[in-house]
Specification:
The protein is 62% helix and 4% strand. The chain contains 19 helices and four strands.
Length: 467
Amino acid sequence: MKRQILFVFSILVFISGFVSIIEPDSAWVLKTGEWIIEHRQLPLQDVFSYTSQIPWLNHEWLSQILFWITYGIGGFWALSALQGLILLTLFVLALRATERKELIFDSWFIAIILWGLALLLLRDKLAIRAQLFTNLFLAISIWRISTFLQQPFQSRKSQINLLLSLLALGVFWTQLHGGAPHLALLSLIFWFCQRDKISFLAVIISIISTLIGPYGLSIHSHFGQSHDTLPQIREWHNLWEAFGFFPAYFVLSISLFALLAYSVIKKYPKNDRSTEFCLIVTGFFFLAALKYVRFFQEFLVSSLFVIPLVAIQLKAVGQKITRQSLRALAVIMLFSLFFMLGRREFGAGFSKEKFPFAAVDFIKSHQLSGPLFNSYNYGAFLIWSLPTEPVFIDGRAFTVYTEDQINELIQVYDDPSKFKQLEDRYGFRLAILQTNGRGQELPAYLLSNGWKTRFEDGKSIVLTKEQ
């Protein structure tokens, strides 16, 4: 019975990766991959906008190439399949980490419920971005270190294999998502749990591996700079601010961590360094996610490895608590299932509800031209769908656009009258804007200052400057 449940669950996990794209940055990621393959080099300057003032530190170049190759194989359906495959791999790695542990059926059922909750939350954050590969490499690294810590005797061969695997993971990870300190953090926690020469070498190797790439040390010096505008970007909000419109997110996240913490603390296994390692990693990323929601996915990925241990502890606590926990978890799971499945559209490709397809078609059919002013969240999609028209701005904050440029846009959103300064500088003739969300007052200001509405559909508006 256990095998049948795991088989069906695995199929559902893979299928859950087939969701439409709602992340704006996915569009420029794909176009950049296309550009790199076509020109056989990394772009030194921005090639998609006309306002960039700094060299392009493209720290996700290998991710972009892999995404574009995948798209070339089977279009958006292939990208959805890649998302499903990575989700399935996360589950399989968490499952493999428990191979030496015996679980009765009830414990497996509890683990499946918790795995399902974590993967549903991950599903809602799926995007064609480098973070997808970071989730994968984070899971591989946790699995590699935790299984090493499970070994009663760590032979010289297994130690060397661990260090070599961490070096390979670190080097590839740096090309996929440069600047991510995750492996160095995992190695530090590994050293804290083991405190020997091997764990110390793992820390040194993981740090050195982040310097192996086209940008070297500059990858850290760039992202280590203080950016006052970070609080304006949603992924740098705290967990409650980011999920304020969806409080179920916050409740489910807190509930998941509370169950993990309670179950492990209730009967913590002594001298189990593997459990200690996984629990510290999960706890760290949960605290990080409370401060910055961009670490929420890392918390979910790391929790996958603690969930089987929780199931064991629930079994040990007793049948009464196990049944009560099972009922509570079933209610949470059903609630999250209906809530989460309704938030992401099944399928592939860019969401018709999220992006301005009709507005772009209008611009093309009427041959409107710029210089273009566009909303921040529309920039990447315009790079994809309107490649002949350079964009004003898109989601590549701090790698292509300066902090002053981001601040200028924020000021325009807060005070539309400041648009005139940008208009005088760039000579805008065409604008495509969101009609909801931040900056929704801007269209009214333009209409009262010599601009004309050419298209509007309740989601976006196209305006041109009257002669």
